Amino acid sequence: MAKRTAESLAPFLGRDLRLDYAQHGGFFEDADLVTGKTGQGRRDLLLVDGIDNLTQAIANRLKTRKGELSGLGHPNYGSRHHDLIGEPNVERTRNLVKLYVLEALREEARIEKVLSATVRAEHDPPRESVRIEISVRVLGSALPLNLVVPFSFGVGL
Length: 157
Prior knowledge:
The chain is of the alpha+beta class. Helices cover 24% and strands 31% of the residues.
């Protein structure tokens, strides 16, 4: 299969409602729907497609607790790493986060291969937060998609 350009991948990668995150810089927290002017001058919800849609979809999958959407018919959507809240930020726990993230990414049909996944303590000595750094190969694309998603083991954070 020939590798496609970002533009030719857009229909394959789907379309969804565009989310705006309160904290920018890859924190993917406190999302709200984005509105804007349509071609007819009316306000409407905006859409996201292509690589931006896949980035948003991966972030949403990792920010959702596995089983949280069972009532909507999606019992396997999300990640189990949220079960580790309250655990110490030690290598064993970070390895479990990585395992659970890899399990969640395996459920995303638009990902051909996970090129790398690391979970790093953000501070030395480690505090409650880690950085989940992911690089994936998107189906039909030569360029990797890189994403960083923060996670906190802190209770109530």
